[in-house]
Design goal:
2 copies of one chain form a homodimer. Chain A is an alpha+beta fold. Among the domains of chain A are: about 10-65 and about 75-290, Glycoside hydrolase, family 65, N-terminal domain (Beta-galactosidase, Chain A, domain 5, Distorted Sandwich), CATH 2.70.98.40; about 715-765. The first copy, chain A, contains 19 helices and 32 strands. In chain A, strands 1-9-10-11-12-19-16-15-14 form a 9-stranded antiparallel beta sheet. In chain A, strands 8-7-13-18-17 form a 5-stranded antiparallel beta sheet, with no helix packed on it. Chain A has a 5-stranded antiparallel beta sheet with strand order 20-27-28-29-32. In chain A, a hairpin with a 2-residue loop joins strand 25 and strand 26 (about 700-705). The model of chain A has no long low-confidence stretch (mean pLDDT about 95).
Amino acid sequence: MKQYFKVDEWNIIEEGLHPEDNRIYESVMSLGNGHMGIRGNFEESYSGNSLQGTYIAGVYYPDKTKVGWWKVGYPEYYAKVINATNFIGIDLYINGEKVDLAKTKVKDFKRILNMKHGYLLRTFTIIDSKNRETKIEVKRFLSIADKEIAAISYSVTPIGHDAKVTFIPYLDGYVSNEDSNYNEKFWVEIDKWVEKYKGYLTVKTKKLNFYVSTAMKYSVIQDDKTEVDVETIEKKKYVGNKITLIAKKDKTTTLYKYISVTTNRDYPTDKIKDKALEKVENAYNKGFEKLFHEHSKAWDKLWEESDIVIEGDTKAQQGIRFNIFQLNQTYLGDDPRLNIGPKGFTGEKYGGSTYWDTEAFCFNFYLSTRGEQVAKNLLLYRYKHLEKAKENAKKLGMKGALYPMVTMTGEECHNEWEITFEEIHRNAAISYAIFNYVRYTGDKNYLADYGFEVLVETSRYWADRVTYNPRKDKYMILGVTGPNEYENNVNNNWYTNTMASWNLEYTLKVKELLETEYPEKYNKLVNKLNLTEEELNKWKDIINKMYYPYVESLDVFEQQDGYMDKELKVVEDIPKDELPLNQNWSWDRILRSCFIKQADVIQGLYFLSDRFDIETKKRNFDFYEPRTVHESSLSPCVHSVIASEIGYKDKAYELYLRTARLDLDNINKDTDDGLHITSMAGTWMAIVEGFGGMKVKNNTLSFKPFIPDNWNKYSFKILFRGHLLKITVTKKEVIIKQEKGQNFNIRVYDENYLLPKDGKVIVKLNK
Amino acid sequence: MKQYFKVDEWNIIEEGLHPEDNRIYESVMSLGNGHMGIRGNFEESYSGNSLQGTYIAGVYYPDKTKVGWWKVGYPEYYAKVINATNFIGIDLYINGEKVDLAKTKVKDFKRILNMKHGYLLRTFTIIDSKNRETKIEVKRFLSIADKEIAAISYSVTPIGHDAKVTFIPYLDGYVSNEDSNYNEKFWVEIDKWVEKYKGYLTVKTKKLNFYVSTAMKYSVIQDDKTEVDVETIEKKKYVGNKITLIAKKDKTTTLYKYISVTTNRDYPTDKIKDKALEKVENAYNKGFEKLFHEHSKAWDKLWEESDIVIEGDTKAQQGIRFNIFQLNQTYLGDDPRLNIGPKGFTGEKYGGSTYWDTEAFCFNFYLSTRGEQVAKNLLLYRYKHLEKAKENAKKLGMKGALYPMVTMTGEECHNEWEITFEEIHRNAAISYAIFNYVRYTGDKNYLADYGFEVLVETSRYWADRVTYNPRKDKYMILGVTGPNEYENNVNNNWYTNTMASWNLEYTLKVKELLETEYPEKYNKLVNKLNLTEEELNKWKDIINKMYYPYVESLDVFEQQDGYMDKELKVVEDIPKDELPLNQNWSWDRILRSCFIKQADVIQGLYFLSDRFDIETKKRNFDFYEPRTVHESSLSPCVHSVIASEIGYKDKAYELYLRTARLDLDNINKDTDDGLHITSMAGTWMAIVEGFGGMKVKNNTLSFKPFIPDNWNKYSFKILFRGHLLKITVTKKEVIIKQEKGQNFNIRVYDENYLLPKDGKVIVKLNK
């Protein structure tokens, strides 16, 4: 495997410039603060291979759908994360020669992402046409202490010569998306203004009227002051300054650029310009070091809550930190209108911000590290989209609610029939997150206030979507795509049928609970929802008569009808040069093969873990995992958790590394497009739920840890109902320390232990 | 049902202008001569709803594929029939007022397509702003006697006033396709020149270098000569003349415009301009009447060979004539590089020129009315594409040859995975046409010279495409789309499995024949093809162990695995306002429903008719036809043939009318896009093979005619191995007359009859 980065516990280090892989490095080196993000682009001009990317959370564009062959029900528009005003830009000229690392001679290039304190550092030396060397050091961060602020320090040190240096710091709104369907530009200029050392630009999206103001202010600090000449530049959607000065031999000249970004998502439209100017002024007055100090302190706190420490395996340590770092850069849970985009702020690919990834893969991480309110915000996000989900079901001729596959505002924006119309299992994931939340937090009020409505409407969808088969007296679900997208339009996907039935069951269970514990609210809900006895009976009938494909000879669940008619090869039979399949095989060949993209039956065993014994899990894992190519980033994590549970420690570790280092090692050969943010939460699960064996049972936490052979020790932290626990696993012991909270009972290896306030429980490690 | 046209035996008549449905009228009023075609557009400017269309056979453009989500194996380009230089244009001004029927007051408007002699006539009276009336009569044709020539007579008669009349005859290459994927213009100007009364324009396609020269020459004839002023006009890709004259009160002024169109498909590129000028000069010298006379004589001959006469049912008569007329306008079989495009020269929709429609639906019409050489040309077309078909199979990871779903040059140009990659039954249709041709003509040489290679390579594809299922000891074909495109990615489509096995069987049968009758050629072929005993044995094994889905309880073939798990409704259960389904239901709903787009099992019963007895056909028809929505234009014809065979006369007649008048009555609500050319040959089949019960058995023709209740008489003609027969069916008798050919034996109602030279056989009609 190609090694892209130096292995280091806290840093992601590129040594030497890699023009051919630059997009991969740019993706990995992305910075974000939940409000905005930028790819690891260079400040100065770069004419080489690069994907310019500046993204602002919640600002999107309804790009006209591109489709070869239109089908009824397709959305007209595809909500797209859009590339916004480039605010990092600082063009650089040394002695009149433009610095462009694709052309300029460069040595000692390093690009370092510091995860501990969330900044990007570049150091390199350029050699001009007269062989004179100049050192450059660039550091930037997007503040997580003040999320509308970014700052850059750009230092130039001519070695052994005086140099005429020209900086052009600018704001450039003349940007586009590479994935624009019809080469449309999404932004129009509204307002701009520039003077010496200062400027701003306001642009708005052509549709939907998102207004974004970006302001900059900068200073130039020299060890040895020289005469400075400053000109202003104005172009279409562009403002800049041109600063020319003499940088003295061996002295450092630094340009500090402060940026603020405000949008009419947060302020009235007519105020965003003033707000941006006010904020950039404040930032400027604070200065780079103070801003950075506030920012790094905030990171310290985040790490304190969410870090996972691994001893004895730096690759694994770097992997998990990178995953946690990117998750915290993407979503911090403080804005309930936002969600966790599959690429976060690291690329354009995939539109929308919300997939079933949120409920199925990201939810637990935020629930256990960011707390109940953040998790509740994620649930409320879907609750607020319930009406849209009902419209979506109606559009497809169905009752109840069908949540969209991909969305920004609740409306479906994906347009492949086999996904958009058929990958309906997503509906159960929305319900599952409610169950999951209540199981973890005990917050039954949520069910009465919000959850039950979602459960009823998703149940209604399922009850309308099943086909009763009188010849077999069974309910079937025809024409679906399961989690394994390497099957399309299959009948009776075991996972979908299982989760649909579970969705109905849980709705009925919640109904009983509300009837008993919240009778008044319940009666109101019955009226509001028009819930009838007949409907409830229909649901019971479906639960009782749901059909589940099953392979008798092997005693495993059958992924879908007809799976066993396939040629039952294993992944090892595939020639290496044909992997990944999705880049080498035509779609029909993938579909009719037995090869599986991601957990499907296994996903069901993971979600409904309590229903299946270890032997069942083993049999199904043994049958399906060897046929799984893991070409979805969401695949290895779930397999790793189950592998841990069934005692396949080596497999669990192998799959952990695959999920943890997916982007660092560019395993699926698509990191150039951006990072796989949502699967990063799966990496966290692989450790906490897999290696740590953490589950919620009977209103408390239960652990069954093991430690991978080559690790000396690992630890993670968990927030649970007001308790903050630190779980440390060594070669010999499991130590569970209560850092916050009162006495309570926990379970380790199925034994009860009292965990005292400020105390710990130490249990011998099960081998 | 809305009636668009007056019912008439030989004419298609629009009375009064229908701006809202103009595109439908334009489609139906299309003219073509196998070399080029034009929609029923107006000569003068029209600012209303119109699809401008001028098409030249074999001239196409590789438009960059548009696809929402790319899949490995998709073609980069989609070969598109392109809109070429508009040569009919004649702008008209009366007393300085521009004639534009979307704005000008008009009365007594008629647009008449004369099918007998292949011309379009428009007559109308315009009323100017001073309430003065002027009569207009426009007649045009594309010569089938000289296929590069078109001519228009455009007559103006002011009623009760002298009028200043301005004609602007022009050639306009500044045209585009509405369906251009990225709004690209396909043509660039190469050369043009204009003088008084004459001009030409040469354009070429941006890619592939198709050069097209169009020349015009015209004359103006007046009852009463007036002073004529002529100016020339040149614009980008445009040449014209502006002729101003006084048209005297109640006198007719006629502009005769002669056009020639030449391409570098037929002449060296540097000669096409001269050729166009030479041809237009000749046409001009002959004059309109003489040109028209030659043209109409050629039509007389075509009708003599291919007309079907129906007495007592003008609607049915008009329908079949319209179908035969359009088929003869589209393809005359004289150019082996051409094929039968699904929209002919009547619209843009659908790229490519060749679908399985040719082999499955069009072949018999051309074989029986145009003769063996034309049919052989159609086979050779595919033979010449064999290498491309092998490349196509390879691209999808398969051995042998997979013919493309849609093509222009043998390369696949369609891009929906469920069609492109999975609708593989088309491969068997290519083989079936060979079988069909040899059965009809007895030309076994074709097998030795060309056919066997195609049969072997298609067989190789099938042998690689099947999946052996060791648990059932059966061969299966997984992940296909059958002829019924309202199912996608199904397993074991009965039709596909049946035809694949048939393909292998026929190949083995031909192998035996060649071995015996053409030993020398056979040995060469074995070497060329690298044919091994092992391979042949594998084919035999597949034939023996092919799996065919079957419904035991109903004793019918099961369309595919799992069809019986669907909710088994019938078409009558669908609310009328939800039809056609493809315009009202989302795709998933269509897929999981039991509703069928077009003949699937029934198509197999039709092709392999000899293998199935009447009872089997009846049971399957009874089960499937009520579930068939016939939303493919190719559906009713095949159903009609089988309905005839099983004695469902009313059903056969109902389905006949549906296929015959599909476009005249705009039944599928898409005639505005163009006509359904290929299904028109199915209409012919519905009469000849359905009502006439014609089959080829044991090297001769066999008939089992009946007559629909409301018909008094019908007749059709058949070319068969040097015989020209006229079959007439009355209420009482079947009369088979030999118009050309020697004595031979035919079969009527399973009895043998000797049909003497110049004689006839008369048999009592079976009731």
